[in-house]
Sequence to fold (217 residues):
Amino acid sequence: MSGVTYEYMETYLRKLIPEKQGVLKELEEFAHNNAVPIVQKETAQFLELMINMKKPKRILELGTAIGYSSILMCLSSNMQAKITTVERDEKMIELAKENIQKYKLDNNIEIIKGECLDALSNMKDTFDFIFIDAGKGHYNHFLPHCLRMLNKEGVIVADNVLFRGMVASDELVKRRKITIVKRMREYLNMINDKEFLTSTIPMGDGIAVTVRRNENE
Ligand SMILES: C[S@@+](CC[C@H](N)C(=O)[O-])C[C@H]1O[C@@H](n2cnc3c(N)ncnc32)[C@H](O)[C@@H]1O
Fold:
């Protein structure tokens, strides 16, 4: 039970999604066998859909892990997107680099080594699409930087915002996760401010999609 949706629903919806092929499939297997937390199947599908619809040229990702979602987004953009992705774990960075090379995407995907908050503080680029998937207890701290760098028509997608259901129900909160839950709730309050248009979707571990409202709304 994910705590976010019904198990039968998740199982059914996952079965509808076509199997990945080639290296992406290998990466899914590697992640599964080595307990590397990559995006869930339906979240991956949702990201592909967003990239197809939005056609971003510049993407920022927080949380590279083995490079699965970076590669996925780059392929979805038909190699038109340049991706900057931030990761602090050296072992993950090595694996991600190898995987990115397998697809010859070195010119499309740049990995920044370090803490997301430090990397964000030093960044001056602008992005059309930002995918937040690291530092679950810091989304509220990442947001001002993400907004500073988000283009007018840009989109922020944040994964794990319902955090196994704990964010929606105090009864599910584990003691050692209280800070993450509090800060994630703060993130959700921030992006549901009237300045923004946000849809929070109980899919995977919870996804929040945010854009700036246009001036007439
Ligand atoms: C959920 S995984 C990312 C999965 C990846 N987006 C995918 O779906 O293929 C989160 C990654 O973020 C990294 N991470 C966690 N907190 C971080 C932080 N504060 N700064 C930088 N990296 C962080 C972890 O080492 C981990 O590899």
